[in-house]
Amino acid sequence: MSEYKVHAVKDGVVTIEGVLDLNTANSLKKQTIGLFNGVSEIQFDLSAITHSNSAALALMLDWLKMAQKNQVSLSFSNFPEHLRQLARVYGIEQDLNII
């Protein structure tokens, strides 16, 4: 079974730890919806991701939609290189605020 953890850190930084794939993306989306309420910015730190695939990119696009809806500035740090390459292939790298 794939597992993940969400660590909300102060100053709007949220660390995602573990596996981010088709088995975890939907539950992770549900768990993080509330993070977009009452804040001006969120930074997802992806340094603790152990495995991910294109489902992670789909989740990131959902997060972008939630951020736009709630007028939240969204960024991603420590973006895994294999995900960056997938984002390039899908033509969405420029849509993600990767820092």
Sum up the structure in keywords.
3 helices; globular; 99 residues; Transcription Regulator spoIIAA
Describe it for me?
This protein has 99 residues and is α/β, with parallel strands linked by helices. It has one domain: 2-Layer Sandwich (Transcription Regulator spoIIAA). The chain contains three helices and four strands. Helix 1 links the parallel strand 2 and strand 3. The chain is globular. The N and C termini lie far apart (31 Å).
Q: Between the first and last Cα atoms, what is the distance in angstroms?
A: 31 Å
Total domain units: 1
Which fold does the CATH topology refer to?
Transcription Regulator spoIIAA
Main β sheet profile: 4 strands, mixed
Low-confidence stretches: none
The residue-averaged pLDDT reads 94
Name of the level-1 CATH class: Alpha Beta
Helix content: 25-40%
Instruction: Note the overall shape.
Output: globular
Structural class: alpha/beta
Q: How many helix segments?
A: 3
Rg over CA atoms: 12 Å
Elements, N to C (H/E): EEHEHEH
SSE arrangement:
Layout: E1 4-9, E2 13-20, H1 22-32, E3 41-52, H2 54-69, E4 73-77, H3 81-90
Parallel strand pairs: 2-3, 3-4
Antiparallel strand pairs: 1-2
Helix pairs in contact: 1-2
Brief digest:
The chain is an alpha/beta fold and about 100 residues long.
